[in-house]
Design a protein that fits this description.
126 residues, mainly beta, 4-stranded antiparallel beta sheet, 11 strands, 0% helix, 49% strand, globular
Length: 126
């Protein structure tokens, strides 16, 4: 069983920064890619960023490009999301997700990920 645990959320003023982390565990954890999604109240879950374990290839939503940076630590099975220049519209619950090893490429849709964390709240005040 794969477990994903997010950390690092909190309350920050507009223009500030936060660093989210997602630690993956499980007896034989392996996946092809890790992604971050977010869901604001009353809105659908949306893609934020993703990274492939093997190559480090990354992809970002246009809304966060240039402000957010995703990285991975293969040895620790951990993925980070560095969020800078935060805006009130970044307020949401942020979810970490893992794609099964059989999947190719980097998914940007929720249904391309097989395991999910519980989420961590990010609130940006204006």
């Amino acid at each position: 069983q794969v477990q994903l645990v997010e950390s690092g959320g909190g309350l920050v003023q507009a223009g500030g920064s936060l660093r989210l982390s997602c630690a993956a565990s499980g007896r034989t954890f392996s996946s092809s890619a890790m992604g971050w999604f977010r869901q604001a109240p009353g809105k659908e879950r949306e893609f934020v960023s993703a990274i492939r374990w093997s190559t480090g290839t990354t992809v970002y939503a246009d809304s966060v490009k240039g402000r957010f940076t995703i990285s991975r630590d293969n040895a620790k099975s951990t993925v980070h999301l560095e969020m800078n220049s935060l805006k009130p519209e970044d307020t949401a619950v942020y979810y970490c997700a893992a794609a099964a090893v059989r999947r190719v490429g980097i998914g940007v849709r929720s249904n391309e990920y097989d395991y999910w964390g519980q989420g961590t709240q990010v609130t940006v005040s204006s």
